[in-house]
Write a structure and sequence with these properties.
About 5% of the residues lie in helices and about 40% in strands. By secondary structure, the chain is mostly beta strands. It has three domains: about 140 residues, Alkaline Protease, subunit P, domain 1, CATH 2.150.10; about 240 residues, Jelly Rolls (Sandwich); about 190 residues, no CATH class. The strands form eight sheets. Strands 15, 18, 19, 20, 21, 23, 28, 29, 30 and 32 form a ten-stranded mixed β-sheet that branches. Strands 1-3-5-7-9-13-12-11 form an eight-stranded mixed β-sheet.
Length: about 575
């Protein structure tokens, strides 16, 4: 049997050939042979049974799912093809996959779970790299920063004191006319309430409407529907964002889950999913950028599930260098992060309805009278900054260069509001060593350091998006054997910059007007060989303009070996502090 788009083999049929571009096919419960001899992009999923998947000269994705047998892949091209391993909880990183590989003659055999194997014909283990694999998401290195399980619905038109705002942030915007949409995003403040909750599920209902009654007279809008955004309540730079939802089927329906910049600029835009109601088996995942043009769009198309039948989880892991899309916790697509997608973004979910000339097209006689976007939960996570491989600082420095030069100290980031020391940082407290407190900003992914207990308490009370992470090291009290660590606040990027160099301090004051000098942050040891001390290794990221200080040799080695991602340069030794130890008496 041959197909040119998406097909699942019915019972009684064993073989499937994929033709055309963007074709996808799945086997049934018996042993199948699925082939894609053409030059287009294909997705081959054997389904249950011990299957043979044969690739072609195009870009092919081979899907293997836990519990569905042992498959053989023929024609895999490590230069362009992908292996999508689904639901394997022990295979969430390339390192784990590589440890499960073995060379058996001319073939590479991957030992999967439950006794299953995946065999790549005529391939050496060393042929494969992390770029060839799409693996299940591993949230063990993340921390939850946002969650709504919809036991109730907290929403309002203003978004003030509620989780969700039920219109776009721009004044009065309740549809997107440039998209040729036919819906009016209503709520109880203007008329029809499209939101209801039952059994922990939010229902956004699109319903036919009469102009001048349910929609504004003269608007030309024939449907009411709903949009929810976290513009007023939550935004974050980088992390994992997901929704568990069931989407409506029907010509013209256009549900989406997406992210937009909190500063209301556009683009960039990150679309976790868009689905057209007359094609519920096709998921579009996209990025929009202004790099190279006013709206440069890159889209990945995902097949394999009917989004209108049952709940599925749709997620995205947005990092400084890559964007990975997930369906039901399994990676399905990956894109390079546009260079201008480097600012905190808020979440939106909406059920649009197309009009004539729109992407989904206008509704017609086959469209149901109502469409229901059912949302079970929405969650966001930030990467744990304590894991060296997860360092993804990303607030850019003006001009894209290191403002402190080669002898700069360390940079952390935090919002200017709510922090103490507008006219100087409090001096170190205590008479011996003082704990330095580290916070993680879940909205930006950056660190902030202070040794002031008053500032620590103020942050804990007034900045709920800051996660307190403890004491990474300590600083000495001022004395003959110490040097000052100076602190700057960059009003343009909300980043803090630290340096021990008086010359560098004076240079920044003279040449960087966006940098506000805040005084002496704390002390450091003048002698790097002092007992019980550690000298922090300073790194600068040429892509993001951020700095990071590694507290030990293992972390520094990991960054130098690329574990923290691309762009990190080791700039040598930074300042020397007191290493944390059991029994240390902090003031």
């Amino acid at each position: 049997m041959s197909t040119s788009k998406y097909y699942t083999l019915p019972n009684g049929t064993e073989n499937l050939t994929l033709a055309g571009n963007n074709s996808s096919g799945a086997g049934n419960h018996v042993d199948n042979i699925i082939s894609a001899p053409g030059t287009g992009s294909h997705t081959l999923n054997g389904g249950a049974g011990n299957d043979v998947l044969i690739g072609g000269s195009g870009v092919d994705t081979f899907v293997v799912t836990k519990g569905e047998g042992s498959d053989v892949v023929i024609g895999f091209d490590a230069a362009k093809d992908f292996l999508q391993l689904q639901s394997y909880s022990s295979l969430t990183s390339f390192a784990k996959v590589k440890s499960a590989m073995s060379q058996v003659g001319a073939d590479t055999v991957i030992k999967l779970e439950t006794g299953e194997t995946l065999t790549l014909r005529d391939h050496k283990v060393e042929d494969l790299s992390a770029a060839n694999f799409r693996l299940p998401v591993d949230l063990s290195k993340y921390q939850l920063t946002f969650s709504d399980e919809f036991n109730t619905f907290s929403g309002s038109a203003t978004g003030v004191a509620t989780t969700w705002q039920t219109k776009y942030p721009q004044a009065g915007l309740r549809t997107l006319p440039n998209n040729k949409e036919d819906e009016y995003y209503s709520d109880s403040s203007v008329g029809v309430n499209p939101f209801s909750v039952k059994d922990g599920v939010l229902d956004i209902t699109a319903a036919r409407a009469t102009q001048g009654v349910e929609t504004p007279l003269g608007s030309g809008l024939d449907w009411t529907s709903g949009v929810i955004t976290t513009y007023k309540s939550f935004s974050q730079l980088y992390g994992y964002f997901e929704v568990r939802a069931q989407l409506p089927a029907g010509k013209g329906f256009w549900p989406a889950f997406w992210l937009l910049p909190a500063d209301l600029s556009w683009p960039p835009e990150l679309d976790v999913f868009e689905v057209l109601g007359d094609e519920p088996g096709t998921i579009y995942a996209s990025t929009h950028s202004k790099v190279g043009g006013p709206n440069v769009t890159e889209t990945q198309t995902v097949f394999g599930i009917d989004t209108s039948k049952g709940f599925h989880t749709y997620g995205v892991d947005w990092q400084a260098d890559t964007i990975t899309y997930y369906v039901d916790n399994n990676a399905v697509a990956r894109l390079a992060t546009p260079s201008d997608m480097n600012k905190p973004m808020y979440m939106l979910l909406n059920l649009a309805v197309g009009d004539a000339g729109s992407w989904p097209g206008a509704t017609d006689a086959t469209t149901p009278a109502e469409g229901h976007m059912l949302i079970d939960s929405v969650r966001a996570y930030a990467r744990n900054p304590g894991v060296v491989a997860d360092i993804q600082d990303a607030s850019p420095v003006p001009g894209g260069h290191d403002p402190g030069g080669s002898n700069a100290s360390v940079q952390a980031a935090t919002p200017s509001q709510g922090l103490a020391s507008t006219s100087g940082v409090p001096a170190a407290e205590g008479s011996h060593v003082t704990a330095v407190y580290r916070f993680f900003d879940t909205r930006t992914g950056d660190h902030f350091y202070t040794n002031s207990t008053a500032e620590k308490a103020q942050i804990l009370q007034t900045l709920p998006w800051f996660t307190y992470e403890g004491t990474p090291w300590a600083t000495p009290s001022q004395g003959a054997d110490t040097i000052d660590v100076f602190r700057f606040f960059d009003t343009g990027t909300t980043a803090h910059f630290f340096t021990t160099s008086v010359g560098e301090r004076d240079q920044i004051i003279k040449t960087n007007p966006s940098y506000k000098y805040e005084g002496v942050a704390f002390e450091a040891y003048a002698d790097a060989s002092a007992p019980g001390t550690v000298t922090l290794e300073r790194f600068f990221n040429t892509k993001t303009g951020q700095h990071h200080f590694a507290g030990n040799a293992e972390e520094a080695a990991g960054i130098n070996q690329g574990a923290a991602g691309a762009g990190w340069i080791d700039e040598g030794k930074g300042f020397t502090v007191h290493a944390p130890s059991d029994g240390m008496l902090f003031a």
